[in-house]
Design brief:
Blueprint (H helix, E strand, L loop, with lengths): L3 H7 L2 H10 L2 H14 L3 E4 L4 H13 L4 E2 L5 E4 L13 E5 L11 E3 H12 L7 E9 L8 E7 L2 H10 L1 E2 L1 H7 L6 E6 L3 E2 L2 E2 L6 E5 L4 E5 L4 H4 L1 H17 L2 E3 L1 E7 L5 E7 L6 H5 L5 E4 L3 E6 L2 E6 L3 E5 L9 H8 L4 E4 L2 E2 L5 E2 L11 E3 L2 E3 L19 E5 L16 E9 L9 E3 L3 H7 L5 E3 L11 E3 L12 H13 L6 E5 L17 H13 L6 E2 L4 E2 L2 H12 L5 H8 L1 E2 H16 L7 H21 L2 E2 L5
Parallel strand pairs: 1-6, 3-21, 4-5, 4-12, 7-9, 9-13, 16-27, 27-31
Antiparallel strand pairs: 2-3, 6-7, 6-8, 10-11, 12-13, 14-18, 15-16, 15-17, 18-19, 19-27, 20-26, 21-26, 22-23, 24-25, 28-31, 29-30, 32-33, 34-35
Helix pairs in contact: 1-3, 4-6, 12-13, 14-15, 17-18
The chain binds sulfopyruvate and manganese (II) ion.
Length: 623
């Protein structure tokens, strides 16, 4: 255990004073311990002044972790070709010997894990600067908010965090001797061409008992930006002990009639239209990725944990994503990662309108159209998981309540997935419990490029939170069920599916714009202003109701034939899905609540009845 002298020895007076001013022995002890382990050449403490933030921006350029682009404020960062997504296999919970942590969670013996951390991270910052930065997860002065500190040697990680999170130095000072803050300890390790070299020694270890996450030999944001997915695991654990929810959800304000705004939170696995739903034109965004939800006076209220977007850039175009397009083309502070960069400092990504440039640099080095890899496959200009990092404050459509310490009241919760053959485009559950179980806890999605591994495989992902669960799955679902039951007014629960395909042609049955219509219908439902048809699996919209919305918002004549194709209940597919989900929960350990099995079995029986009465494909007009 180090002492203040350990820190002082590496800190100049100015930086040391910033830490002293916080005056928190828990914080000091924590920092000293890692200074001793990392042996940095120097320490920088960020007090959130503009000078300090600018120091980080400049450092990212000087270190070569970022490079300037043509538009002022824009920079580009590359991750190693082997470090382009979250590493699920190497992300583990540290669990003391003999302690049960829950089935299905990726765990490592704590003693062994700590031994490995100590060996990999010993002296890892020799000759380099340790950056220490403070943030809050959630708005300032709010019952939702958790303070957090990041230790890292990556200026890119800190720069990203200064865009993505709210400043926390003042909050730490205000809190004084507080010990329940979240702690993130990261080192990118040895670098080669400014990217992590020892990716084979990439480890992400989470210790929920101590509110700490260690990450090493990686730069990719999902593995390193402590406050993002690493904090989410700590958040889920903390929420489970305190009766609230940490969810992988966007929050969007949807405009209804008479200047009404209804807020929705939505959980979708990555690359399923999550950010684009949160960013719908004409609506207002609170957040696109992570929400804390609390029961406040019997209502579900939510805040965005973050203050920016770490969004997938593939296919972003001015027609579908006008707001994002705009911030990516103006003088804002934006970090692009793993896109193609030209000599003139312009950038290109897969799906950007227009021809790709003749040549440029991407995450694999020099690139030109048609360039092939060793296996003869054509190399795309950008990585599928290439991203942009930008502040919500720069968006025109940011919701006025974005920083409200009381959060916003949720009218509805939406669960989505990438599902080519089962769920209809939109459906409302029969109630909170039915929705949590048959929708949230039953999400399946065809895999995407946001994690390492094969794409296109149907994978189970309850509440889209599977990768981030730090408690047993059954317990997590149970907490969700109980949360809603304690509310005086529970949000309505909906499912959506933007990826349903025609049974014969295999073509998508929806355009990218249709999601607005589903949201507008949900908004009316929450406020008791739209009818619905009982489809046996939930309530679906009636033809007339959505035809009116298509005309009003998209000026499109929505035909009855389209409606029938999109909302035909695929009975066998739904039944098979329920059977898959029951099997998964049967093997999920003892914490799964009985009500989950009862609800799913009842749903299955209902579908069987429908099959006998009306056949395998039931037109919504025959319901
Ligand atoms: C996701 O994949 O869900 C993301 C990006 O939001 S990451 O930070 O990699 O988790
Ligand atoms: Mn996410």
């Amino acid at each position: 255990m180090g002492s203040m002298d350990t820190i002082k020895a590496k800190c100049d007076e100015k930086n040391f004073k910033k830490l002293e001013a916080i005056n928190n022995k828990y914080l000091n002890g924590f920092i000293a311990e890692f200074v001793e382990l990392f042996e940095p050449g120097s320490i920088f403490i960020c007090d959130d002044t503009e000078d300090d933030i600018q120091y980080i921006r400049d450092k990212a350029l000087n270190d070569g972790e970022e490079a300037k682009l043509a538009i002022p404020g824009h920079t580009i960062h590359f991750d190693s070709p082997y470090d382009q997504a979250r590493d699920k296999a190497m992300t583990k919970f540290l669990v003391p010997a003999g302690k049960e942590f829950g089935k299905g969670l990726n765990v490592a013996d704590k003693e062994e894990g700590v031994g490995e951390i100590n060996s990999i991270m010993s002296g890892i910052m020799k000759g380099r600067e340790l950056l220490i930065v403070f943030f809050t997860l959630g708005p300032a002065n709010s019952p939702f908010t958790i303070p957090a500190v990041q230790l890292t040697d990556s200026s890119y990680v800190v720069h990203s965090e200064t865009i993505l999170y709210r400043k926390g130095y003042k909050e730490f000072k205000r809190l004084g001797e507080y010990d329940s803050f979240f702690k993130f300890v990261h080192s990118e390790g040895e670098l080669e061409n400014a990217v992590s070299k020892n990716v084979d020694k990439r480890r992400i270890y989470i210790d929920t008992a101590e509110n700490i996450v260690y990450s090493m030999n990686t730069q990719y944001g999902g593995n390193t930006i402590g406050l993002k997915k690493l904090a989410m695991r700590l958040g889920i654990n903390r929420a489970s002990q305190e009766d609230w929810l940490t969810e992988h959800m966007f929050i969007v304000g949807v405009n209804g009639p008479r200047d009404r705004v209804t807020y929705f939170a939505g959980a979708f696995p990555s690359m399923c239209g999550k950010t684009s739903t949160a960013m719908l034109k004409g609506e207002t965004i609170i957040g696109d990725d992570i929400a804390y939800i609390r029961n406040i006076d019997g209502k579900a209220r939510a805040v965005n944990v973050e203050a920016g977007l770490f969004g997938i850039i593939q296919d972003i175009n001015p027609d579908d994503d006008p707001m994002i397009w705009k911030i990516l083309h103006e003088e804002n502070e934006v970090i692009f990662s793993n896109v193609l960069k030209t000599e003139e400092g312009k950038i290109y990504w897969i799906g950007k309108p227009g021809e790709p440039p003749e040549k440029g640099i991407n995450f694999l080095g020099e690139w030109y159209p048609g360039k092939k890899d060793e296996d003869g496959n054509e190399i795309p200009p950008s990585h599928k998981n290439a991203r942009f990092t930008a502040g919500l404050k720069d968006l025109e459509n940011v919701d006025p309540s974005f920083n409200d310490p009381a959060g916003v009241e949720l009218g509805g919760i939406i669960y989505g997935g990438r599902d080519s053959d089962t769920w209809v485009p939109v459906q409302e559950s029969y109630g909170w419990e039915h929705g949590i179980i048959t929708m949230g806890a039953s999400i399946e999605s065809e895999t995407t490029a946001a994690t390492l591994g094969k794409t296109g495989v149907r994978t189970f992902n309850p509440m889209s939170n599977l990768d981030f669960l730090s408690i047993p799955m059954g317990k997590y679902v149970d907490i969700n069920i109980k949360f809603g039951k304690k509310l005086k007014k529970a949000p309505r629960v909906f499912s959506v599916n933007y990826f349903l395909k025609d049974r014969e042609s295999g073509e998508f049955l929806n355009t990218k714009l249709d999601k607005l219509i589903w949201l507008k219908w949900m908004e009316l439902r929450v406020n008791g202003e739209a009818g619905a048809v009982d489809a046996g699996t939930g309530f679906i919209p009636g033809y007339e109701d959505i035809a009116v919305l298509f005309k009003k918002y998209l000026d499109r004549d929505y035909s009855e034939q389209e409606y029938v194709q999109q909302f035909t209940i695929r009975v066998n597919e739904n039944m098979k899905k329920i059977e898959r989900i029951i099997d998964i929960y049967k093997n999920a350990g003892p914490e799964v609540p009985d009500i989950l099995f009862e609800t799913l079995k009842k749903q299955r029986e209902k579908l069987l009845e429908m099959l006998n009465e009306k056949g395998a494909y039931i037109s919504p007009l025959d319901l």
